[in-house]
Amino acid sequence: MGDTGFHQSRLRPHPGKAAAAARRHGLPGVFVVGGKYLDWNTLHYDCFPSRCNDTDPAFVQEHYDAITQYGYSTAIEPKDGERSFAAFTQAEEQLWGLIAAHSPFPYIPSIIAGWDPRPIAYALGPDPTSGYPWQVGHLFWTRGSPAQVAGTLRDGIDWANTHPSLGVEPAPAPPMVLIEAWNEISEGSWVLPTAGEGYAYGEAVARALGLPWQTTHTRHLTIASTSGRTLSGLLTVDDGWSPCDATRLNLQRKSSRGWLPVRSTTARPGGGFTTTLPRKLGAYSVVAPRARRYRQTCDAATSATLLRHR
How far is residue 101's CA from residue 242's CA, in Å, rounded to a whole number? Predict the structure, then answer.
């Protein structure tokens, strides 16, 4: 995605060149999404999609496959200090109404989790050319709660479902909606897990999408091969949650008193592991103990028993 000015000189004269180049390299083509940033003036003057205060008067002549907004920090008029997240949401959803009525391109709604550029402002000061991260001379910030972000996401999905003509794919393809962003930490917009919030944003997004939220991750241990005394295997996580596949493993041997620990090893990222069997003959297995990772539970797993008889 780029801003409309960036693509203007490159796409309008040769709209098919990028797609043709992609196909020559075995790809199905390209889908070009332009960033069209609308602000409070757009609402005040009802001027989308004409030039308004935009820097690109040729916007409607572009050859985008769709447009979106990365964020909408100026959807409400800039003023110093903390601002209401609900006000940003209300203004952005009003802008969706203008887009639905006038957009010459399909549109992908984008949902912000917040806007807080103070880390950049305090560390670097204003950009000498643009004044960023001050906007129109103002430094302001907002942050949505998990419930607010999820609610706005649901609104975006509902909007996309009720405006199928503006979708990037025809029905029955599901609507496309973006979240800005996974880890835009320096601008105060993230939904990734944190020490303070845990997985609150991920859980809220899952609920908004009607998806189950797993807090326990089932694992399986498989002994792949043995060569002499070298044992190799794989620890897999059913739902693919990677923090559970790189972990401590215990090699144990069966005795008349039960299973006794022999030595420990570590599964590598991806779950692969190698260890050395003792010289003593007998029955062995590998165990991944139950463990906690980032407020999630990695369930215990035990391999099949391996008999070392020579």
Answer: 44
